[in-house]
């Protein structure tokens, strides 16, 4: 079983909000087959703590603006700004400082899971 439509909608909205704030290496991983507690991980990174926080703020704003509003049930790591986790139950968003992203390598940890394709709309509009 793959990620639900709701999880896909939330993940793609979160990814676009991150892209709008110049997040790097945005990946959506469908973990529904491997985990019972969530359907998808959204991974994004930024080169500094201030940008990590800006990306987190943009994601929260985007998901609360969805027709079926979404607010995180849990939020961790905001104080340090190196790795912020937003748990929306259907999806879990990880916004990491570039160094944390390389060190913890969540992409490699979940490499056997399929990804959900995401293309930044700014790249599509530029063509």
UniProtKB/TrEMBL annotation:
Main location (coarse class): cytoplasm
Superkingdom of source: Bacteria
Molecular function as annotated in GO: ribosomal large subunit binding
A biological process term (GO) from this entry: negative regulation of translation
Location in or out of the cell: Cytoplasm
Signal peptide stretch: none
One cellular component (GO) term of this entry: cytoplasm
Alphabetically ordered keywords of this record: Cytoplasm, Repressor, Translation regulation
Quaternary structure, from the entry: Interacts with ribosomal protein uL14 (rplN).
NCBIfam families in the cross-refs: rsfS_iojap_ybeB (TIGR00090)
Family in the record: Belongs to the Iojap/RsfS family.
Annotated function: Functions as a ribosomal silencing factor. Interacts with ribosomal protein uL14 (rplN), blocking formation of intersubunit bridge B8. Prevents association of the 30S and 50S ribosomal subunits and the formation of functional ribosomes, thus repressing translation.
PANTHER family in the record: IOJAP SUPERFAMILY ORTHOLOG (PTHR21043), MITOCHONDRIAL ASSEMBLY OF RIBOSOMAL LARGE SUBUNIT PROTEIN 1 (PTHR21043:SF0)
Protein name: Ribosomal silencing factor RsfS
């Amino acid at each position: 079983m793959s990620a639900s439509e709701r999880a896909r909608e939330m993940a793609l909205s979160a990814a676009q909000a991150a892209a709008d704030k110049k997040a790097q290496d945005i990946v959506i991983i469908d973990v529904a087959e491997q985990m019972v507690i969530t359907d998808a991980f959204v991974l994004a990174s930024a080169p500094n703590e201030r940008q990590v926080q800006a990306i987190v703020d943009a994601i929260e704003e985007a998901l609360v603006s969805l027709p079926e509003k979404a607010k995180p049930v849990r939020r961790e790591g905001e104080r340090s700004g190196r790795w912020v986790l937003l748990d929306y139950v259907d999806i879990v968003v990880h916004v990491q400082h570039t160094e944390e992203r390389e060190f913890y390598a969540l992409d490699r940890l979940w490499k056997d899971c399929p990804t959900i394709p995401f293309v930044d709309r700014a790249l599509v509009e530029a063509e």
